[in-house]
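Box 3.1 — From sequence to structure: ABC transporter ATP-binding protein
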Amino acid sequence: MSIAVENVAYAAGKTIVVDGITLAVEQGKVLGLLGPNGSGKSSLLRLICRLRKVDSGIIRLAEQDIAAIPRANLARRVAFVEQQATTDTQLTVRDVVQLGRTPHRGLLSPWGVDDDLAVEDALARVDMAHRADQFWHTLSGGERQRVHIARALAQTPSELLLDEPTNHLDIQHQLEILSLVTRLGVTSIIALHDLNLAAMFCDSLAVLQNGKVVAAGAPQEVLTEHLIARVFGVRAHIERSAVHGRYNIQYAMG
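Predicted structure (token representation):
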């Protein structure tokens, strides 16, 4: 497995946030994390990239305990795109994306051709090359999100973690970004709210509730009308889409 989470627990003060979670992602596959607000999705992502320390359990990258991986090596390997990231510094779009190359460069290493190529490729992939010299703070919320995804791609990671990457994006760019992620061939875990996007783009799903995994498996196995009602509190009708062949979920009030 590329990423394996084994009975991991984490508490913030006296509040249990992640409660004995076990899940795994195969090399090159995309796992979607689903669940209502406060279910533990964001905290789990932070534990996987070691921004937070597990209270118990083990997280492995290719069979190696992340606690034993030097931080510099982990930073070269795992890229994390958070929900919201901001700065007051006057940075251009290219400046922000260039930050993705930091883990690959030593303290005295000169900027090289490989760095330029990685940055330009990342900008092109998220359709922001034409904004490369624009100041980051002048962008819309959706454009900023695309730039942060470009920063992660410039890092050339083997594992990619994304926390609500489609927030603030219009429908076209939601589809483009998730389609891009699935084509990368990079092991990815994506926290999502949109069940239809999860069904459309993810190889497998894990549904979290109150810090626990309550369902995991292929989208067609996990996304049932009963589970959606139990976890999300809404009635749903599920059918296979004639357009893309994946499940399509329609919601009903009351």
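Summary of the box: The chain has a mean pLDDT of 91.
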